[in-house]
Amino acid sequence: MSSQIIPVEPFDYVVFGGTGDLAERKLLPALFHRQEAGQFTEPTRIIGASRGDLSHDDYRKFAAEALKKFLKPGEYTEEAVARFTARLFYVSVDAGSEKGWDSLRKLLDEGKDRVRAFYLAVGPAIFGPISERIRDHKLITKNTRIVVEKPIGRDLASALELNDTIGKVFREEQIYRIDHYLGKETVQNLMALRFANALYEPLWNSAHIDHVQITVAESVGLENRAGYYDKAGALRDMVQNHMLQLLCLVAMEAPSSMAAEAVRDEKLKVLRALKTIDASNADKFTVRGQYRAGASEKGAVRGYLEELEGGVSNTETYVAIKAEIGNWRWAGVPFYLRTGKRLAARVSEIVITFKPIPHSIFDSSAGRISENQLIIRLQPDEGVKQSLMIKDPGPGGMRLREVSLDMSFAQAFDVRNPDAYERLLLDVIRSNQTLFMRRDEVEAAWRWVDPILKAWEETGQPVQGYTAGTWGPSHSIALIERDGRTWHE
Length: 489
Ligand code: BG6
Hints:
Layout: E1 11-16, H1 21-36, E2 45-50, H2 56-70, H3 78-85, E3 88-92, H4 101-109, E4 115-120, H5 127-136, E5 144-148, H6 156-167, E6 175-177, H7 185-195, E7 209-217, H8 226-232, H9 234-251, H10 260-273, H11 282-285, E8 286-292, E9 294-296, E10 299-301, H12 304-307, E11 318-323, E12 335-340, E13 347-354, E14 373-379, E15 383-391, E16 400-408, H13 409-412, H14 420-430, H15 439-459, E17 464-467, H16 474-481
Parallel strand pairs: 1-2, 1-4, 2-3, 4-5, 5-6, 7-12, 8-17
Antiparallel strand pairs: 7-13, 8-11, 9-10, 11-12, 13-14, 14-15, 15-16
Helix pairs in contact: 1-2, 1-14, 6-15, 9-10, 9-15, 10-15
The protein binds 6-O-phosphono-beta-D-glucopyranose.
């Protein structure tokens, strides 16, 4: 089966932080794949911008190296990479001075009518200065957009400030706040599953759903990001954005269409309906953890503090939360969230557990009747699994057993699973904001996260140690078992 490719208008993508880690690992490979899929029309350029003094050719070499490193075997061919690097340019610019801005302007002037996107793959501290220089150098055309990456603030106050700073230069319709989880295939599939099937929606509420679990488990540790991560922690790094976005897509009312405002309005209502967790209940509804030395698939690994190299830190590398949504649809249905580094495996999934049947007609020899579960696997092996009870095949009495309708997208469809950035980078060009966070969503997410952060600080809620390579601290098991439920394994 092949997917339909609709070419986009010619564009100039200016990537600030063009020689950085994100550009190398994600942005350049993603753009390369879209080129090879035949989605670009000419003339289309990608312009790396950063402080270093590189020539266009140096940048092309840098990009070719990055592709060699990050494309899968078989995806890298000299011809394809040469086609790609031919559209690369480089400008050395300094966010803090006038250096390079005239050169950037001259380069961009060659494509005044093209769609123009500025991707800020840089720290949030320079979002403001870059935006202002873009404006002052008159680089904003009627076809211009700006893309920003998280972290959008480290609390509500700093997020408001950052949004104000960017908002002084760009209108909301020009601002694309990336949450790469929204670009993941299975996350979009969640909307298809809910709203392109008549089957689930009538059951999608507190009358039929017992609880929801959202797990984003990583096996990696700090990965040379100590400077950022130790100041952030799992709640800011993963929950405020990715996990709350997943929760919104599970919990939102059906939007009237896939239009950006319709979807974002519904997500916002969910965020606003989340029940507050603060100093009065944080110890009951949240668990913080930090990994100690242990093992990963690749052998022995150091603990978080050892990775920090002698650092003392109270930062959580794991968090579990029992969240509740105070509205008619979800009253009394807990949403258990958990995420962490150095866990037993890399698994992200959403598990919807339905309520038990109201009455059993079978006698005890039939065995236990498990609740139906719908499992949406984000990674690895994206797919959907629905558990059902059936009669155990064969003669003999009526014995029941649980089976799964299990669909792995990789096995079912012969298409490459695109990286989230491929979809999102081109949605910017297509001017489709559905999978991007609107300003009020980011702020509403912080409004819920802030009291948790404050509670942890005020009450000194400790981080519970867990051994690297396990499923997190025992307190997180207690968090869910207290309610008579267990984490999905
Ligand atoms: C990022 C976080 O946003 O998402 C990282 O900053 C995390 O800490 C990453 O590792 C996880 O993304 P993915 O796509 O690998 O699940």
